[in-house]
UniProtKB/TrEMBL annotation:
Gene3D superfamilies: Ribonuclease Inhibitor. Residues 293-338 are annotated as: Disordered. Residues 322-338 have a biased composition (Basic and acidic residues). Residues 300-321 have a biased composition (Acidic residues). One of its GO terms (cellular component) is nuclear envelope. It comes from Gossypium hirsutum (Upland cotton). This is RAN GTPase-activating protein 1.
Length: 338
């Protein structure tokens, strides 16, 4: 590392990728001569490098200027809250940042709050990936205040952040009024229930350029699934992938999702595995996709019995239809001013 750093010292690099190395703090400082000589970096990648809090502070200390930095990736490190404070200092100085990834870095609420505050200075952000951290509701709400300023945002990855309904609603409301060209929205694994789905559905309805939606591993159930399906029902001509797997969805929700997405001109894949759809419901979904079964993901982990009593599901089709109409009415007056 010292040899490589000394050879490259003084080179005017645009991109520096040191990913997949056993850096730690000593490794980062071994690249000190190289890092200190860079004033025009546009991309810095430090993924899977064992970046601890001490190493993160070393990175912040050694890079003299990030005014031109557009890409900053810190995926899969052991940074934690203290390290997130150091990363946030880099972000604060990176006003031109367009692509920020700080996923799987063991960042909790305090670190999430620091990153959210720093991101307020990144008005040109296009891609934000914070997946697989422990932000919690408080950091999620704080992040929503930063996201409300991102008019250029096209991809946002907020899965597995422990957002729950409150954090999800705050972020959905912020995204609804920003990011008009949003293409990718991922909020899987956040304990979102049907209660938090209305705001999320309103946000989704306003994103006509959406190509991919991932809400897997939540608790939306039929009510939430139908609200989301209705939000996607109008236009959304560029939509090509929806993941609603593992959401305790039953027959009505699965059928309604299928009926909506199958009509999209460029649609490619619907994931609804790991739900509680009855055998009859599975047959209905397959019939809807008849002639294009390659657009339907695997259903081998679907549990027709579900986790609780299925009597309500099996009583009769009329009850399901009435329930569906009631849910659909919740979005009938939804109008989004583009």
């Amino acid at each position: 590392m010292n040899i490589f750093s000394s050879v490259q010292e003084g080179c005017h690099l645009r991109y520096l990728n040191l990913s997949n190395n056993a850096l730690g703090e000593k490794g980062v400082r071994a690249f000190g001569a190289l890092l200190k000589s860079q004033n025009s970096l546009q991309g810095l990648y430090l993924m899977n490098d064992g970046i601890s809090e001490e190493a993160a502070r070393a990175v912040s200390e050694l890079i003299p200027s990030t005014e031109k930095l557009k890409v900053l990736h810190f995926h899969n490190n052991m940074t934690g809250d203290e390290g997130a404070f150091a990363i946030s200092e880099i972000v604060k100085r990176s006003c031109s940042l367009e692509d920020f990834r700080c996923s799987s870095t063991r960042v909790g609420t305090d670190g999430g709050l620091a990153l959210a505050e720093a991101l307020k200075r990144c008005a040109h952000l296009k891609k934000l990936d914070l997946r697989d951290n422990m932000f919690g509701v408080e950091a999620g709400v704080a992040l929503s205040k930063a996201i409300s300023q991102f008019t250029d945002l096209t991809e946002v990855y907020l899965s597995y952040l422990n957002l729950e309904d409150e954090g999800t609603e705050a972020l959905a409301n912020a995204l609804k009024h920003s990011a008009p060209s949003l293409e990718v929205l991922e909020m899987a694994g956040n304990d979102i229930t049907a209660k938090g789905t209305a705001s999320l559905a309103a946000c989704i309805a306003s994103k006509q350029f959406l190509t991919k939606l991932n809400l897997a591993e939540n608790e939306l159930k039929d009510e939430g699934a139908i609200l989301i399906a209705n939000a996607l029902g109008e236009d959304h001509g560029q939509l090509n992938e929806v993941d609603m797997s593992t959401n305790a969805i039953r027959r009505a929700g699965g059928r309604h999702l299928a009926q909506v997405v199958v009509k999209k001109p460029g649609f490619k894949l619907l994931h609804i595995n790991g739900n509680f759809i009855s055998d009859e419901g599975i047959d209905e979904v397959k019939e809807i996709f008849k002639g294009s079964l390659d657009m339907l993901g695997p259903l081998d982990e679907n549990d027709p019995e579900g986790e609780d009593d299925e009597e309500e599901e099996d009583e009769d089709e009329e009850e399901n239809a009435e329930h569906e109409k009631e849910l659909e009415s919740k979005l009938k007056d939804l109008k989004i001013n583009q």
